[in-house]
């Protein structure tokens, strides 16, 4: 069954390796028949958070926020692609996510983390897990860490390392399972 999973990239740096990981996830999700639009903060140009989307009068939010809100409302879940900056979450990712709240409720998220080193960004992923839960989009139990991302993926997001396919498949199976289960429960109503 086709699902909608925005892939939210967390970096805006020039030459960012996260774009490799985001493209890889978009490609992997689309190969399974899912819709996976890339949410790129470098292209969106969102302002630093002064007020959330819901705090704008109806029809007065900046156009990128309106577009992103519509995408999140129809999404079945969220894939978040995060680097690790100073053992934490990149500021562009936090800013992109923090503009919304209700649009995420009762939908699962999945964390893809990466780094140029061997840890694969997992320290940031632990903080991101807490943040996503607070936003109402709890993360699935599995992570997809990609260590040495520049050696694991090419610039177009194609795998250069065969080991990556197996954990990616299990990760996406788990995400789809949670997304379908929560979608079915949302159809019957939510606790509040």
UniProtKB/TrEMBL annotation:
Domain NADPH-dependent FMN reductase-like stretches: 7-148
Q: Which GO terms describe its molecular function?
A: FMN binding; oxidoreductase activity
Show the Pfam families listed in the entry: FMN_red (PF03358)
Q: Which InterPro entries match?
A: Flavoprotein-like_sf, FMN_Rdtase-like_dom, NAD(P)H-dep_reductase
Instruction: Choose one Gene Ontology CC annotation of this protein and give it.
Output: cytosol
Q: Tell me where on the tree of life, at the top rank, the source sits.
A: Bacteria
Family matches, as PANTHER family:
CHROMATE REDUCTASE (PTHR30543), NAD(P)H-DEPENDENT FMN REDUCTASE LOT6 (PTHR30543:SF21)
Recorded protein name is NADPH-dependent FMN reductase
């Amino acid at each position: 069954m086709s699902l909608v999973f925005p892939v939210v990239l967390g970096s805006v740096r020039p030459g960012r390796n996260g774009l490799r990981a985001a493209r890889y996830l978009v490609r992997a999700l689309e190969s399974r028949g899912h819709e996976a639009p890339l949410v790129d903060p470098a292209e969106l140009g969102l302002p630093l958070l002064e007020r959330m989307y819901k705090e704008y009068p109806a029809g007065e939010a900046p156009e990128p926020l309106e577009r992103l809100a519509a995408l999140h409302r129809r999404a079945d879940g969220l894939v978040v692609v995060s680097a690790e900056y100073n053992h934490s979450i990149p500021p562009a990712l936090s800013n992109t996510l923090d503009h919304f709240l209700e649009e995420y409720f009762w939908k699962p998220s999945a964390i893809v983390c990466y780094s140029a080193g061997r840890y694969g960004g997992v320290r940031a992923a632990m903080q991101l897990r807490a943040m996503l839960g607070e936003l109402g989009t709890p993360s699935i139990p599995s992570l997809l860490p990609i260590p040495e991302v520049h050696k694991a993926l090419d610039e177009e997001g194609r795998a250069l390392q065969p080991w990556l396919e197996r954990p990616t498949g299990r990760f996406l199976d788990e995400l789809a399972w949670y997304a379908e289960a929560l979608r079915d429960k949302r159809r019957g109503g939510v606790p509040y």
